[in-house]
Design a protein that fits this description.
Elements: H1 2-10, H2 14-33, H3 37-49, H4 51-64, H5 81-94, E1 104-109, E2 115-120, H6 123-141, H7 157-168, E3 178-183, H8 187-190, H9 193-197, H10 204-216, H11 234-242, E4 251-254, E5 257-262, H12 268-280, E6 292-295, E7 300-302, E8 305-309, E9 315-319, H13 321-335, H14 342-359, H15 373-384, H16 391-401, H17 426-435, H18 439-447, E10 465-469, E11 482-486, H19 487-502
Helix pairs in contact: 1-5, 2-3, 2-4, 2-6, 3-6, 4-5, 4-6, 13-14, 14-16, 15-16
Length: 506
C-alpha cells in the first residue's frame, strides 16, 4: 500500500502542475491590473479548488521549504506519501472553509536579551497557507510599492542594498545626507487584524480563512493584533498592511526594516510624525530606543551589512560586526566539535561559508576579517592534528570547507521598477534569476538558455537551482557533466534513477 502511494506521489506530472498554477496566477495578476476585481475573485476561488495548486502546496511544505522538518502542536515533523495524498484531499474538501489549529511556540532569544516567540503552524495549516499564498500574492503584486523588497517573489535583500547605494553614492551627494534607521516596535506581534483584513484583495470565504489564521496566533492580551511569525503567509500579510509607508518620503523597506533618506534641508521630526500617524492606523508604533537619525559618514547597519559614505564621498559596504560574529560562531562550533572528523567537518562547513560569501558578494570583502582568513587557518591547523589526516589532505579539506566566491562591490543589477514574475515577461525573469548565481552555476545556466535541464521550464520562480552531476560522480565538476535543474526536479531525477536501479536486469 505504501509503495502505491509513493509511486502515485512521485509520478505526478509536476512540470504540468507548475505550468497550470503559474498560468492561473498570471491571470489573477492581469485581472487586478485591468481593474476587473470580479474576475480576479473568481480566479482566486478557482486557485483554491485547483488540484495542481493543492499538490504543489503540499509538496512545497513537505519537501522544499527549509523548515519542512519543524513540527506544529500535533508533533508531526513529516508526512509519509499516504498522508500527503490525504492532505491534498483535505485541502480539496475543506480548503474554502479551513479550520486553523493552534500554534506551537518556540522562544527565540534576541540580541537585547529579550525573547521573540516563533509560532509554528502544523504541516496541514502550512499547506493551506501556501495554497492561500498562491491565490493572494499575484493579486497584491500589482499594487505593492516598487521600493518594498522583503519577502516578495523576484526581489530580495540585494535589491535593497543596491537601492541604498544608488541614493548614497558620490553622484547623489551621499556624503551630505542623513538616514533614519526606522524600527517598528513588535511589528508582527502588534499589527492590527482590521488593517490586514481591510486591505486584503480576496473573496469572502478566503478572507474568513485568513481571519481564523490570524486569530490562531493571537496574544491573550492583544486579541485584535498580531500575525504569527513562522507562518507561510505571515510575511505577505505584513507586506499588505505596511504597503504605502514608502510613499511618505524617499526610503527603502525590507519587511519591517526600513531606511529613510534625508537631504540636508529635510526635517527628520516632521517625517517621523507622518510615519507615526501611518503606523498608528495599523496599531503600530515606532521603537524610540532603536529608531535613530544617523549621518551617512558615521555609518549604519541594515540587513546584516554596515553601510557608510567615506570622506572621499564613496559608498562603502561590508558585513556588519554582528553578522560576522554569527558566522564566526557557526564555523567555530563545527571546527571545535568532537562528534565527527575533518572530512565531515569540511562537508558541513562548505554550505555555511558559501552561503555567507554569496550573501555578501556585492560588498567589499577584501579585509582579513571578511575573507575569513584567520578562521580558515585555524580550521587547517586543527585538521592537521587528526591522526589519519596528513598535511596535503588538510589543505585540500580546507579548500573544500572554505569555497571561494568572487565579490564585486555594488555591481548587483536591481529589479526594474514594479516588475513582477507574474507579468508574463519570462525572458526577463529567467535571465535575471540566472544572474543571481555565479561561477559554474552561471555558466551552466547560460549554456542551457536559462532553462531547467530536466523539465525545460524557465527559472522564473523562487525555487532554488541545483547542479546535477549527470554521471553520478559528485567529484566530477567538468562542464559537460553538469546540468542546472530545479530543486524539485533534482529530487525527481534521483528518484527515477533509484527506481531504475531497482528493476531486474536482463
Amino acid at each position: 500500500m505504501s509503495n502505491r502511494y509513493s509511486e502515485l506521489w512521485k509520478t505526478q506530472p509536476w512540470k504540468k502542475l507548475r505550468q497550470s498554477v503559474f498560468r492561473l496566477q498570471r491571470r489573477i495578476y492581469k485581472a487586478i491590473q485591468a481593474g476587473d476585481t470580479k474576475k480576479a475573485r473568481s480566479l482566486q476561488k478557482l486557485m483554491m479548488k485547483s488540484r495542481s495548486a493543492q499538490l504543489l502546496a503540499v509538496r512545497q511544505v513537505t519537501q522544499l521549504n527549509q523548515g519542512k522538518r519543524t513540527a506544529g502542536i500535533d508533533g508531526k515533523e513529516s508526512l509519509n506519501y499516504r498522508e500527503r495524498m490525504e492532505l491534498v484531499e483535505a485541502l480539496n474538501q475543506y480548503g474554502t472553509n479551513w479550520k486553523h489549529n493552534g500554534l506551537r511556540e518556540i522562544p527565540i532569544p534576541k540580541k537585547n536579551g529579550k525573547i521573540r516567540m516563533l509560532k509554528i503552524p502544523t504541516i496541514a495549516d502550512r499547506a493551506w497557507q501556501c495554497l492561500v499564498k498562491y491565490a493572494l500574492e499575484p493579486a497584491h503584486e500589482t499594487t505593492f510599492h516598487a521600493r518594498s523588497y522583503g519577502f516578495r517573489t523576484g526581489r530580495g535583500a540585494h535589491d535593497a542594498q543596491r537601492y541604498i547605494y544608488n541614493n548614497l553614492r558620490s553622484f547623489c551627494n551621499g556624503k551630505t545626507k542623513r538616514v533614519i534607521e526606522l524600527d517598528i516596535k513588535k511589528c508582527f506581534d502588534r499589527i492590527s487584524h482590521s488593517s490586514i483584513m481591510n486591505r486584503l484583495n480576496a473573496p469572502n470565504n478566503l478572507k474568513q480563512g485568513i481571519f481564523r489564521c490570524l486569530k490562531a496566533g493571537i496574544h491573550p492580551e492583544f486579541l485584535e493584533q498580531g500575525t504569527p511569525q513562522g507562518g507561510v503567509v505571515s510575511p505577505l500579510l505584513a507586506n499588505i498592511a505596511l504597503d504605502g509607508i514608502e510613499e511618505i518620503h524617499p526610503s527603502v523597506r525590507y519587511a519591517d526594516d526600513m531606511v529613510v533618506f534625508l537631504k540636508p534641508k529635510d526635517d527628520a521630526g516632521k517625517i517621523l510624525r507622518k510615519i507615526e500617524q501611518f503606523l498608528k492606523e495599523r496599531s503600530l508604533e515606532i521603537s524610540q530606543e532603536k529608531t535613530k537619525v544617523t549621518k551617512t559618514t558615521d555609518g549604519f547597519n541594515f540587513l546584516g551589512w554596515h553601510m557608510r559614505v567615506k570622506q572621499n564621498g564613496k559608498f562603502h559596504c561590508t558585513p556588519s560586526a554582528e553578522n560576522y560574529r554569527n558566522i564566526r560562531e557557526k564555523i567555530k562550533n563545527v571546527v571545535n566539535s568532537s562528534n565527527y572528523g575533518a572530512k565531515v567537518k569540511s562537508k558541513k562547513l562548505a554550505p555555511i561559508v558559501r552561503g555567507w560569501r554569496n550573501y555578501h558578494k556585492w560588498c567589499d570583502m577584501s579585509s582579513s576579517r571578511d575573507s575569513l582568513w584567520f578562521l580558515d587557518k585555524t580550521a587547517g591547523r586543527k585538521f592537521k592534528k587528526e591522526k589519519k589526516i596528513d598535511k596535503h589532505q588538510a589543505v585540500e579539506l580546507c579548500k573544500k570547507a572554505f569555497p571561494k566566491v568572487g565579490y564585486k562591490q555594488n555591481k548587483h543589477v536591481m529589479v526594474k521598477g514594479t516588475k513582477s514574475p507574474y507579468d508574463g515577461d519570462i525572458v526577463y525573469w529567467s535571465k535575471r534569476n540566472s544572474k543571481l548565481y555565479n561561477n559554474i552555476t552561471a555558466k551552466t545556466l547560460d549554456k542551457q538558455n536559462h532553462s531547467c535541464g530536466y523539465c525545460n521550464l524557465k527559472f522564473i520562480d523562487e525555487e532554488r537551482v541545483h547542479l546535477h552531476h549527470i554521471d553520478g560522480n559528485h567529484n566530477n565538476w567538468k562542464e559537460d557533466n553538469l546540468m542546472a535543474v530545479h530543486q524539485s526536479c533534482h529530487q525527481q531525477i534521483h528518484w527515477s534513477t533509484s527506481q531504475d536501479d531497482c528493476k531486474p536486469k536482463g
